[in-house]
Design brief:
4-stranded mixed β-sheet; 9-stranded mixed β-sheet; 3 domains; Ribosomal Protein S5, domain 2; alpha/beta
């Protein structure tokens, strides 16, 4: 009889050791820090039974590399870095109802045109997945469906090498037979992921996992889940409408600067060919409305920034932001109070990024400041121009990358130019109205309707 491997549970925060797992450490009180580890005796014994590794040269490993699997969706291939790498483990996370299962079913259907694909669901029956596939027009004999919550069974299926791509929806529903805890626990997620990853890499099968997220927006489960996988993708946007943005948070086989923009239609998620034109189609030129030239990955996108400034009815003014970081908004409002003549302490300020787009880059600072100033004074921009630039606490407007790309996108949609930071180099970009600080931007480019 094989010797049973002894295990212990150690807190990664304080180092306390216990014989069973718990969500909260009984010593330091931290949550989700208790992790399962092998005992020292077991590790020492495993050294004697281990085998010597057989390494090979880097050149030989590159020659034996397989071609990437094309997803059939151009933006998805771009985010992956040129397609899905054989033997890679990829994690897709997002809010409930955002379109994760829809996107992966479309992807599996496209890949099944060339190689066998298996779609495993731990949340739905085969009949339910089949109904969704029929609605999306994703029915193909090479695309096989199965339902299972056993990580051991799925790993054995992957190891059989019958499929080139396996989709598992979702990792939080799986359980490993060697672990006694319930599905979705830290130990189950960790061990199930490692088991599937080992089978995928040994059989050179590409693996796509769906991951749940918490109410804060982070991926549910231990942080080690993101370390184990090769690629971490995040699908963001408004679940009830607007655009969906696919970003690579981690990518061992490509850049994390790329992004794909999609729109949900009856046939599933479709790539948006010209997101700037779609986002500005219903724009009304009025006070508080400014067009921002931002970047989604390396793609320039024009999006409308709306601001509303009202005198507060309460003792404490309200600050609300949709699609923009609220802490950053409070910082910019404080800077405007100190560095300009705007008096905003008695006003509620609301910021909205149209289209459900989440703006993270600092280049949106100047557009938000201009929109607030425009709404507070009831003024509009003098120029038919887009706005971009990072703003410091002293009110200075700082340099941002890819100015030429932003200007080219603005001119493509009929804008005269752009209001942005003054370039340090002697070469001046055509159509750029350079400004050095926020106060001069408000004074020069805002006028009454």
């Amino acid at each position: 009889m094989a010797k049973k491997i002894a295990a212990r549970y150690v807190c990664s925060n304080c180092g306390a050791v216990s014989s069973s797992w718990s969500g909260k450490c009984l010593q330091c009180g931290e949550w989700n820090t208790v992790q399962e580890e092998l005992s020292v005796e077991s590790v020492a014994g495993s050294v004697a039974t281990g085998k010597t590794l057989k390494p090979q040269s880097v050149g030989k490993s590159v020659k034996s590399d397989h071609r990437r699997l094309g997803s059939g969706i151009s933006d998805v291939d771009t985010v992956f870095g040129g397609g899905i790498v054989a033997g890679s483990v990829n994690l897709l996370a997002g809010q409930p109802g955002i379109g994760k299962s829809t996107l992966l079913l479309q992807l599996a259907y496209a890949v099944a045109a060339k190689v066998p694909v298996l779609y495993v669901s731990g949340e739905e029956s085969v009949h339910q997945v089949g109904l969704r596939a029929k609605r999306l027009g994703a029915v193909r004999p090479e695309l096989q469906l199965a339902t299972s919550n056993s990580a051991d069974d799925i790993a054995a299926t992957i190891a059989s090498s019958k499929y080139r791509l396996v989709v598992v929806d979702s990792i939080q529903t799986l359980s490993c037979g060697a672990v006694s805890s319930a599905a979705g626990s830290v130990s189950q997620i960790t061990n199930s992921t490692r088991l599937l990853s080992l089978a995928a890499k040994q059989s050179n099968t590409a693996l796509l996992l769906v991951g749940h997220v918490t109410k804060e927006g982070s991926i549910a489960g231990p942080k080690v889940l993101e370390h184990v996988v090769d690629v971490v993708l995040q699908l963001e946007g408004d679940r009830y409408g607007g655009f969906k943005v696919l970003r690579a948070v981690k990518n061992r086989f490509g850049s994390t600067d790329e992004a794909g923009i999609f729109e949900m239609v009856d046939q599933g998620l479709q790539t948006v060919a010209n997101p700037s034109a779609a986002l500005l189609a219903e724009r009304q030129v009025t006070d508080g409305s400014v067009v921002l030239a931002t970047l989604e990955g390396t793609r320039p996108v024009l999006v409308e920034v709306q601001a509303l400034v009202n005198r507060t009815s309460y003792g404490y003014p309200k600050r609300t932001a949709s699609g923009f970081d609220l802490n950053r908004l409070n910082l910019l409002v404080a800077m405007l109070e100190r560095r300009t003549k705007l008096r905003l302490a008695e006003y509620d300020i609301y910021i909205n990024i149209v289209g459900g787009i989440q703006i993270r880059e600092p280049a949106a600072d100047l557009a938000v400041c201009m929109a607030i100033g425009s709404a507070a004074k009831g003024l509009q921009l003098k120029k038919n121009a887009v706005v971009f630039g990072e703003v410091g606490l002293s009110g200075e407007v700082r340099h941002v990358p890819y100015i030429e790309k932003r200007l080219a996108e603005a001119k493509k949609l009929g804008f005269e130019g752009a209001i942005g930071p003054t370039q340090k180099s002697g070469k001046k970009a055509a159509g750029l109205y350079g400004i050095s600080n926020v106060r001069s931007a408000l004074n020069q480019f805002l006028e009454e309707d």
